[in-house]
Design a protein that fits this description.
By secondary structure, the protein is an alpha/beta fold. The protein is 46% helix and 13% strand. It is built from 9 helices and 5 strands, in the order ββααβββααααααα. A hairpin with a 7-residue loop joins strand 1 and strand 2.
């Protein structure tokens, strides 16, 4: 019986952690590696490690709720009690997605990533954790804005670690192009009014209107985009 307690099934690791950060209700974090004997599964186990990824989830929650969304009052936040991270084999070239408070990351992406995979996954997790905690206008907010806010969080978490393929400030064709383009634009808006993203997220709790930009910054989003482009000579 004693030796049986040390048996580890390599294809399926489950780690459960309960954490209560100051001002944040206790959240259960589960990390599961169910990518079998794939290269990505092995790389996750050896280079990223489950304790580290669990720590990233905890720190991302604190960063998002306290520093970005500034939700010091528990009733302002989404009532999330359980967060799962699942490393799994996926079809196609996808990286990750979040559904029902579960973050799914492609083991294939981890396996083929050529750079600092630990730093890359940290950025991905900050992005995906944003989706767990952010308000999306009760489904009415543009998907591109929702994704842009998630990339904004990733950018602010570590400004010096933005992926090399991201656009530079001022680049892009439309404010609602999504992801890095929208993130850079939102960073500009947040510089115009400190806490803009927190206030925008609060307004998006039950709906969405492009007029939110006017209410918070005094200009339409198209005017702000024109100002943004002009600032960087684009």
């Amino acid at each position: 019986m004693g030796s049986s307690r040390h048996i580890v099934v390599l294809s399926y690791f489950v780690f459960l952690f309960l954490v209560a950060l100051p001002g944040i209700r206790a959240v259960h974090y589960v990390v599961i590696n169910k990518a079998g004997n794939s290269t990505g599964a092995a790389r996750f186990t050896n280079e990223i490690r489950i304790p580290n990824s669990r720590h990233v989830l905890i720190m991302a929650t604190d960063f998002i709720l306290m520093r970005i969304f500034r939700q010091n009052i528990p009733t302002d936040r989404k009532p999330v009690e359980n967060v799962s991270l699942v490393i799994e084999n996926m079809d196609g070239d996808g990286v990750a997605y979040t559904s029902n408070d579960e973050i799914h990351v492609s083991a294939d992406y981890i396996g083929r990533y050529s750079g600092d995979v630990k730093r890359e996954l940290t950025g991905v997790l900050y992005h995906e954790m944003t989706h767990i905690w952010q308000w999306n206008g009760d489904g009415q907010a543009p998907r591109e804005l929702v994704e842009g806010i998630a990339d904004f969080v990733r950018l602010k978490a570590n400004p010096n670690a933005a992926p090399t393929h991201w656009v530079k400030p001022g680049e892009g064709d439309r404010w609602d192009q999504g992801y890095d383009v929208t993130a850079r634009f939102l960073d500009y808006c947040n510089c115009l009014r400190n806490g803009f993203i927190a206030e925008l997220n609060k307004k998006m709790r039950s709906g969405y209107s492009a007029n939110f930009f006017v209410e918070l910054l005094g200009r339409t989003v198209d005017q702000l985009w024109a100002d943004y482009k002009a600032r960087y000579g684009n």
